[in-house]
Amino acid sequence: QVQLVESGGGSVQPGGSLRLSCAASGRIVSVYAMGWYRQAPGKQRELVAVIRSAGRTNYTDSVKGRFTISRDNAKNTVYLQMNSLKFEDTAAYYCNARIVLAGTYYDYWGQGTQVTVSS
Asked: Coil, strand or helix: which one is 1?
């Protein structure tokens, strides 16, 4: 089983930056993708960014040009660099890992880390 431990959340002013980290542990056979999701109160959880095994990335439109997802395979860690933060970025951010075994997907989730953007 894969465990994901997140860190890096906090409170920042508009226009500020944060860097989220998600460290994976356990037996990792084949990672299809790792991503960051977020959920604000009263809203559905949405995909923020995803990075696939070969390095291909995708971002939700609202964060394009401001957020960057990256990975360090040697450390089994994925990062989310968040720049030019806005009030609407306030949410709980969750790390996700999708593992593929024998053609079947298995999803694992981090505990969540709070990001608050306020003046």
From this structure: coil
